[in-house]
Structures are given as structure tokens and as C-alpha cells.
Design goal:
Length: about 150
């Protein structure tokens, strides 16, 4: 299908149509395990939903921060992918997140590209409560841009 083996942690995109993108998002093992669902997609901006799941909670009954970070990271990476031609991957170089409120309900992460150069892209991500729209966390992610046409995966 892809012509090269899929490497864990990398997102490979060959199609830019929304239906196919949503289909690819829904098949990523880590996102599937967490229950992360695509909500909206447009050039430079992607929104993903994390339904509340008690199995993702810490001892305080709130969603553990690593799962919120994974949601934010995915939204930022996919926002960057929307700017790129087919056959690119965007592994995360760095992500910084500030947790503003404990999460005890469904949240939506919206990633927006704020910078793109030849080799790196940066996205700003807001994680909001789905019902109220209040911010639960904010993040900035930096991603390496790799063309699979010119480079082989490590």
C-alpha cells in the first residue's frame, strides 16, 4: 500500500482528501487505544477529541497529563501535515505543555500551524473542554519535516 514499511511513531500521508485523512487517523494504534477521534480538518488546523475514560485517570480521578499531551501532539502534527505535499512525515522534535485545569470530561485539541520552514514546523495547540470551551491546557509542538521521496526512515 505505502511502498515502504510503516515505522511506529511516524505518520505517513499519501492522500489529502478529508475522508481518507480521517480514515488514516482512526487507524493509528496509539490514537485508537486512547479513543482519540478526528473532528475537523482544514489546511493548517486540525481538531481531535479525547472522550473521557476513567481508565486514563490518575489517583485523583483526572486524566493523566501524558494522555492530554499525546492528544495535543497529534493535533499539532496533523495540522502541520495539512500544509505538506503527499509522502511526508512529521516526527515530534519537542512539545511543551501547560496544564491549566484538571480534566474530568471530554476535551478537544485544536492544533494550528504557526511556522513552517523547509525542515521544521511549529504548531500551537489549545486543549479545551468540549462542553464549555474553557481551556484545559495549551501547548507548542515542533516537528521535523521529512520527505519520504528524498530520505529513508531510520
Amino acid at each position: 500500500m505505502l511502498g515502504r514499511p510503516f515505522k511506529a511513531g511516524h505518520v505517513i500521508l499519501r492522500f489529502m482528501d478529508t475522508e481518507k485523512i480521517f480514515s488514516k487517523l482512526e487507524k493509528i494504534p496509539a490514537l485508537k487505544i486512547l479513543g482519540i477521534e478526528p473532528i475537523s480538518w482544514r489546511k493548517g488546523e486540525v481538531s481531535l477529541r479525547l472522550p473521557f475514560n476513567p481508565g486514563l485517570c490518575n489517583s485523583l480521578g483526572t486524566v493523566q497529563g501524558g494522555f492530554i499531551t499525546a492528544l495535543a501532539d497529534a493535533a499539532g502534527g496533523w495540522a502541520l501535515i495539512s500544509f505538506l505535499p503527499r509522502n511526508h512525515i512529521v516526527p515530534t522534535v519537542e512539545i511543551k505543555i501547560n496544564f491549566l485545569q484538571p480534566v474530568r470530561s471530554d476535551v478537544v485539541a485544536t492544533g494550528k500551524v504557526i511556522h513552517k520552514s523547509k525542515r521544521l514546523g511549529t504548531a500551537f495547540i489549545e486543549v479545551s473542554f468540549e462542553n464549555s470551551g474553557e481551556l484545559a491546557a495549551v501547548a507548542v509542538g515542533t516537528y521535523r519535516i521529512i520527505s519520504l521521496d528524498t530520505q529513508k526512515l531510520p
